[in-house]
Design a protein that fits this description.
CATH class: Mainly Alpha
Radius of gyration: 17 Å
Order of helices and strands: HHHHHH
CATH topology: Four Helix Bundle (Hemerythrin (Met), subunit A)
Number of domains: 1
Structural class: mainly alpha
Distance between the termini: 40 Å
Shape: globular
Strand content: under 5%
Amino acid sequence: MNLANALTISRIISVPVIVILLLFDSLIPSIIAAALFTAATITDYLDGYFARKYQMESDLGKLLDPLADKLLIASVLIMLIPLGRVPAWIAAIIIGRELAVTGLRSIASEKHIIIAANWLGKYKTAFQCTAIIPLLIHYPVFDIQFQLAGEFFLWIALFFTLWSGFDYIYSYIRQTIS
């Protein structure tokens, strides 16, 4: 266990706490859920930073980090559907893309093909998180329409989700043909 893995595990632990908070559809639990989600998002950056800077990379970290990311995003999106904050079809596309890319990377790995992460995936993640934070808050605070802001960024996240998903597929096909 090292600092990078501890940060990743803290992200996983935050998931059920955020889910429980979303069972209470009111302002204060929503703000707390958004704060925890924000903190979890920051740990995603920090765990990678510490792992690379201090050579803390581990097989456990390579397994848990993407798992933590997917658990966090998917769980929150699923919880936001019955609250009317995220359309189910958008959540299905985002989660489906994550599963498809994970499966594709696994197949590619078995064939000794590496499909590296690129800037599209980074933008996808950034816009997903940027959308989810105001969607979690949802309620107008100080005349800020958080739901509308979240929906705006969710459309951008959907665009990058689809683009990066197709880019992974294209990269895989290109490498298997050559």
